[in-house]
Design a protein that fits this description.
The chain is mainly α. The protein has one domain. α1 packs antiparallel against α2, α6 runs antiparallel to α16 and α14 packs antiparallel against α15. The radius of gyration is 21 Å and the shape is globular.
C-alpha cells in the first residue's frame, strides 16, 4: 500500500503541472470549447490513475522478468543463443510497442498512405532486433560504448545523405517512439540482468545503461534503409484540425477503450508468452513468485489502458488545437514560450522516465540523484520543443541543421564523459520521447505546422520526437562532465 501511495504522489506531481498549464491557457489567452476542455480534464484523471497502476506493475512484473531473462541468456555463454534470442526479443518487443504504432499511424495518415504504417513498424522492429543483440555482445565482451555509438552514427549519417527530408524526420522520430513505456523497462532490466553476472562491478554498473540508446539507433537505420530503397523522393502532407466536436463527451473515451485494449493486449502478449516459455525451461519460479509477476503484468496492462485512453481521447485533440491557434497569433514569442514550458513539464509525465531515473539512483547507490537527472532532462526537452517550433516558423531551418552538429558534439563528448553517464545519456534520449511526447507534443507541433504558411506537415510537423530524443544526450553528458570535474577537484583537495 505504501508503494502505491508513493507512486500516486509521484504521478500527481508530474501530471498536474501540464493540466494546470493548459487550464491557465484556457482562462487567459486561448479559451477552449467545452467539448475540448472536459475530455482533457477526464483524460488527466485517467492518466493519473493509469500511470500510477502502470508504474506499480512495472516494479513487480516487467522489471523482474527482464532481469531474469538477461541473467538466463548470459549464463548460456553461447554467442549464437544470444544473437538469436536478442534479435527475437528486440523484434517482438518493438513490434508490440504502442508508441511506435501511434507514430506509424500518424505518418500513414498524414502521407495519405504513401508511407504505410505496417512497413514502418516492420523495418523498425528488424532494426531494433539487430541492434539489441549487438548491444548484448557489447556488454558481454566489454566493447567501449563510445566506439560502438561512433560507428553506429557514422552509418546513420551516411545513410541520411540518400533519403528525402520526409524519411529523415520519420526515421529519427521512430528512434524515440520505439523506446516507449513497455520497451524501456524491459530492455533496462535485460541490460541489468546481463551486466550483473560480470565479475568486474565497475563495468557491471557502467553496462547497466546504454542498451536503450543503442537499440533506438536501430529504428533510425531501419527507416533510412526503407527510404533509400523506396524510390520516393517527395511527399506532401496534410492534417485536418477539429476545433470542436459534437455528441457525447464520453464517446471518444468509449471508442478509444476498445482500440487501446486491443493494442495493449497485442503489446503484452509477447511478454506473457516469453515469460511463460522461460518459466518452463529456465526460471522455475515458485508459485508465489510466479503469481506475483502475473499480477504485475495485469497491473501493467490495466495501467497502460487507462493511461493511453486518457491521452488519446483527451490530450491529442487539445495538443493539435493549441498548436494551431497559438501559431495563428501575431506574436510568435508566446508560441515559443509555451513550447519550451510544455516540453519542460511533459517530460515529468513520461512513464519510462520514472523507471530510468529510479534505476539510475539505485545502480549508482545514490551517487546520481534522480532529481538532478529530472532537472537536466526537463531543460533539455524544453529547449528541444522550442527549437522544433522555431524550425516550423523559419523554413530556412531544416532538421539536419540541428541533428548533424548536435550528434557530432554528442559523439565527441562520449569519448570524454564518464562511461556511466554516456550510457545514461543515450538511454535518456530514447526514454524522454515516450507516450506523452508521441501524442501531445507531436500533435502540438503538427497543429503549429498546419497553421504556418510554407510549412509542410509531414516534414516540419514531424522530427520533434527526434529533437526530444537528442537534447538529453548533450544535457546529461554535460552533467557527467560536471561530476567528473567535481570528483577530480575533491581528489586534489584530499591529496
Amino acid at each position: 500500500m505504501d508503494n502505491l501511495t508513493n507512486k500516486l504522489k509521484e504521478v500527481l506531481s508530474s501530471v498536474l503541472p501540464i493540466t494546470i498549464l493548459v487550464l491557465l491557457l484556457n482562462f487567459t489567452i486561448l479559451p477552449l470549447e467545452r467539448s475540448l476542455l472536459i475530455p482533457f480534464l477526464i483524460g488527466s484523471i485517467l492518466i493519473i490513475i493509469g500511470l500510477t497502476i502502470f508504474l506499480l506493475g512495472v516494479d513487480i512484473g516487467i522489471t523482474p522478468v527482464g532481469k531474469l531473462m538477461g541473467s538466463s541468456l548470459a549464463r548460456t555463454n553461447k554467442l549464437w543463443v544470444i544473437i538469436i534470442a536478442g534479435f527475437m526479443l528486440g523484434f517482438i518487443i518493438s513490434i508490440a510497442e504502442p508508441d511506435l504504432h501511434i507514430l506509424a499511424g500518424q505518418v500513414d495518415l498524414v502521407s495519405s498512405g504513401i508511407i504505410p504504417k505496417f512497413s514502418i513498424v516492420l523495418v523498425v522492429s528488424i532494426g531494433i532486433g539487430i541492434l539489441l543483440f549487438t548491444g548484448f555482445i557489447r556488454i558481454l565482451y566489454n566493447i567501449s560504448i563510445s566506439i560502438m555509438l561512433t560507428i553506429i552514427y557514422l552509418v546513420i549519417f551516411l545513410l541520411s545523405l540518400f533519403v528525402s527530408p520526409e524519411f529523415l524526420a520519420t526515421a529519427f522520430d521512430a528512434s524515440g517512439a520505439t523506446t516507449g513505456a513497455l520497451t524501456v523497462p524491459f530492455v533496462l532490466a535485460l541490460a541489468a540482468g546481463i551486466s550483473a553476472l560480470k565479475k568486474d562491478s565497475r563495468y557491471s554498473e557502467e553496462d547497466s545503461f546504454g542498451l536503450v540508446g543503442i537499440i533506438s539507433a536501430g529504428a533510425i537505420i531501419g527507416v533510412l534503409l526503407m527510404g533509400s530503397f523506396s524510390g520516393v523522393k517527395e511527399i506532401s502532407g496534410e492534417l485536418n484540425i477539429n476545433h470542436a466536436s459534437t455528441g457525447s463527451l464520453l464517446l471518444p473515451f468509449i471508442k478509444e477503450l476498445g482500440l487501446v485494449t486491443r493494442d495493449i493486449l497485442l503489446a503484452l502478449s509477447p511478454f506473457l508468452f516469453i515469460f511463460l516459455t522461460f518459466q518452463k525451461i529456465s526460471f522455475h519460479l515458485d508459485k508465489k513468485a510466479f503469481q506475483g509477476i502475473l499480477k504485475g503484468l495485469f497491473y501493467t496492462f490495466l495501467g497502460l489502458v487507462l493511461f493511453l485512453v486518457g491521452v488519446n481521447a483527451g490530450f491529442m485533440e487539445v495538443g493539435n488545437v493549441v498548436g494551431y491557434r497559438l501559431a495563428l497569433m501575431e506574436n510568435k514569442t508566446i508560441l515559443l514560450i509555451f513550447a519550451f514550458t510544455v516540453g519542460l513539464l511533459t517530460i515529468l509525465a513520461e512513464p519510462a522516465v520514472h523507471v530510468l531515473t529510479q534505476q539510475i539512483e539505485e545502480v549508482t547507490s545514490g551517487y546520481v540523484k534522480r532529481k538532478l537527472v529530472f532537472f537536466a532532462l526537463s531543460i533539455g526537452v524544453g529547449l528541444a520543443v522550442a527549437l522544433s517550433i522555431l524550425r516550423i516558423l523559419s523554413p530556412a531551418i531544416q532538421l539536419w541543421h540541428y541533428l548533424l552538429p548536435g550528434y557530432i558534439v554528442a559523439i565527441i563528448m562520449s569519448h570524454y564523459t564518464p562511461k556511466l553517464f554516456v550510457g545514461i545519456a543515450f538511454d535518456s534520449g530514447g526514454v524522454a520521447s515516450g507516450p506523452m511526447t508521441a501524442i501531445f507534443i507531436l500533435a502540438f507541433a503538427q497543429g503549429a505546422a498546419r497553421a504556418t504558411e510554407g510549412a509542410n506537415v509531414l516534414i516540419d510537423g514531424f522530427g520533434i520526437i527526434a529533437m526530444v530524443a537528442f537534447t538529453p544526450l548533450i544535457a546529461l553528458q554535460t552533467l557527467g562532465l560536471v561530476f567528473k570535474y567535481k570528483l577530480k577537484k575533491q581528489e586534489l583537495k584530499e591529496a
